[in-house]
Amino acid sequence: MTVSARSPRELLKRVLHTALGDYHYWKVFYIDLPQPPVDLPAEVSIRPIKPEELEDVPDQGMRERKVFGGNGAQGFGLFVDGELAAVQWYWWGERYQAERKGRSWVLPPDAAKSLGLYTRPEFRGRGYAPLLKRHTAHLMAQQGFTRLYSRIWHSHKSSIQVSRKTGWRVAGSYIEICPFSRRIKLRLPL
């Protein structure tokens, strides 16, 4: 019989989950607008998209992002030689508040939140996610927004790297714990 030993990290996670219940730990990034336009490679175009455009994309992860569309939302697609390679969405106002039910980071009236940034696996590693995030910041400024936010799971290294690479800064953290089924929210600005 083999007994698997737990790592100290796994043990700590288990103890914390038992004591604190379900938790959320997000890093919140921001960028001030306006941002300059990006020079796109000849084969790349970026334009607004509608959720329906994701229905026939062969990638399941891409199709799942169509739920981010609707009122109070703006989607953008990055196309490589006419093929949809990456998407990003923004929410603001009532849409953001309704989806988050008062939880998470509070957005000022002239701000929007980035979410749903996704690159199809066959297009990854080519710098399309940073290119899309940088260019959409420019496009969102043209719609009157003065600041964008992005909430990223504390250990999602690739998303954190994309945000830092594109000039986004850490605004703080949002932590939520539920000891004894009681929700406690902490917003920790820097």
Describe the structure concisely for a colleague.
With about 190 residues, the protein is α+β, with helices and mostly antiparallel strands. It is built from 5 helices and 8 strands; from the N terminus they run αββαββαβαβαββ.
Q: Could you characterize what this model shows?
A:
The protein has 190 residues and is of the alpha+beta class. It has five helices and eight strands; from the N terminus they run αββαββαβαβαββ. The protein has helices spanning 8-20, 60-64, 93-100, 128-142, 157-165, and strands spanning 23-32, 44-49, 73-80, 83-91, 111-119, 147-153, 169-177, 184-189. An eight-stranded mixed β-sheet has the order 2-3-4-5-6-1-7-8. Helix 4 links the parallel strand 5 and strand 6 (147-153). The mean pLDDT is 91.
Structural class: alpha+beta
Q: Please, how many helices?
A: 5
Reading the helices and strands in chain order gives HEEHEEHEHEHEE
Q: How many extended strands? A: 8
Helix fraction by DSSP (H/I, runs of at least 4): 25-40%
Shape: globular
What does the radius of gyration come to? 18 Å
Low-confidence stretches: none
Overall pLDDT: 91
